[in-house]
Amino acid sequence: MSATGFDYTITRTLDAPVDKVWAAWTIADKYAAWASAEEVVLNVRPGGTWSSVMVIPGGVRVPLTGNYTEVVENKRLVMGMDVPGRDEPVLMTLDLAADGERTQITLSQTLDTAEDRDQAEQGSNFLLDGLTTYLAAA
């Protein structure tokens, strides 16, 4: 636990160049293809908004919205997600590092409770599993 909450960080190496990984996160139809999302709208710029409907196993549809606070092409995305009952969005940082034809991706978040952290970390691992499968087939 940090002074501000409960943290997690996940780092993986993906078998795809950084520009393909960036495109998978920032182009709506590509994001929809791997993130189990529908109705994806991405306005990838600082202050831009995003929205999607996440379709979780079992078919439950979860509408999500948020904004981008930092965008550094092929390197970093900082995204806020709106959470009902919370004044400030929950931020997720995505860092990319090129390693030849591979990319190291790091996702990190700080949450208010250990339960929220554990759920977010599980969701992030699910996303990265989908991304890994998508990039292998692309």
UniProtKB/TrEMBL annotation:
Q: Where is the Activator of Hsp90 ATPase homologue 1/2-like C-terminal domain?
A: 15-135
Q: Which InterPro entries match?
A: ASHA1/2-like_C, START-like_dom_sf
Q: Known CDD domains for this protein?
A: SRPBCC_CalC_Aha1-like
Any Pfam family hit: AHSA1
Q: Which residues form a coiled coil?
A: none
**Which family would the database say this protein is a member of?**
Belongs to the AHA1 family.
Name of the featured protein: SRPBCC domain-containing protein
Source organism (scientific name): Streptosporangium algeriense
